[in-house]
Amino acid sequence: MAEPIIRLEGVRKRFGKLEVLRGIDLQVWPGEVVCIIGPSGSGKSTLLRCINYLEKVTAGRVYVDGQLVGKREVGGRLVDMSERELDRMRAQIGMVFQRFNLFPHLTALENVTLAPIQVKKMPRAEAEARGMELLRKVGLADKAHEYPARLSGGQQQRVAIARALAMEPKAMLFDEPTSALDPELVGEVLAVMKDLAREGMTMVVVTHEMGFAREVADRVIFMDGGMILEEGPPAAVMSAPRHPRTREFLSKVL
Amino acid sequence: MADRLGFWELSVQVVIPQLLVAVRWTLALTICAAVLGTALGLVIALMRISRSRSLRALATGYVTLLRGTPLMLQLLFIYYGLPQIDPRLTFDPFPAAVIGMGLNSGAYIAEIIRAAIQSIDKGQMEAARSLGLSYGQAMRFVILPQTYRRLIPPMVNELVALSKDTAQAMVIGLEELLRTGSHLASRFARPGPAYLWTAVFYLGITVVLSAVATHLEQKLEAKE
Could you give the CA distance from residue B184 to residue B19 in angstroms, rounded to a whole number? Predict the structure, then answer.
């Protein structure tokens, strides 16, 4: 089988005295959709942020596409990556945030084209043509020139997905992408994510949408207390959980 | 002679013409000090939030020193004190005043800009970095543009204060509004008209500044 796109080995993350991740091993294969579920404070979001190196891991290793993130081997020794190299690695992974985090001073299209123009040095005309295509894909071509404040939450999150896709990432991370949305707006965002999954995008999704996990995920991971307690196909984990903590959690959310 | 002139004659023939000359120094000093102070303030603000401990310490020391001592003392030190340390550091009153007021307002403006940057949601920086933008690019294209509107009210305050503080440059011999006004007051032994018109000139500057700011704010507001 091919290399995993994302590989975590013994990842630990500590904030002061609090150990949020306590030894995470995880592999995500090309085209796979992995949903991470678990109670709040279980370290799910921190895990995503470590993959993208928005948080520096305290111990352990993160590999993206076979490449060690954050460290580089020089003459048999590991040294910290330069900021430049880290920026390049971050650009390979798209991230979608719970609170959208669109840039409010830029239009939808400008949000989508900023990184291709500034990071990839893509000519503006080309970036805009591709940006329009992505906005069309998420169903928002007619909102290209609106500022985020004029868009609904669901529309903002779809623009945020288009913005991340514009960098042609090898994988997409979703951090509770529908948790900040009004219930009637959740569906439109999940529909875009389903399309992405169907197209073969590698996705890691932290979510409370059990229906989505059951329908779309190839694998469901249950996290609690900074550890992976159970993982497997959605049917197995969600219908016949083995770990008592998983059962307890599922009984509360289902 | 002049002491027999009435209020309006004294005003129109002597006081206002001389103040019209002096106001150019006040305006020039305000503008130059504001430009220098803003450029300096941006640099100091970025240093204060940088990850480098030594840069942060340097910037904090700067702000503490410049905000912790009187502006007038700083002006006197630059004009009279520096030449004693090194004769090459001798300045005419105007450049000395620009340096002093620029350095001083830089400390205040740094705090204004830092507060504005830190008021931007942390998620903005994270989203920018997750797209592969460097820290510098994220600052330039994402964070700083969002601070502009929030900067206007405190910056106007600062500029209004700055335009009035230029009066302190009279102690190093700059013929700005207040120095000219007090000369006129003592020369004709008629402080009334001299100080009254000096006040009107200062008021004119600050009122125009505030009006421009309000206009600017409304224009930026319309965009969002």
Answer: 9
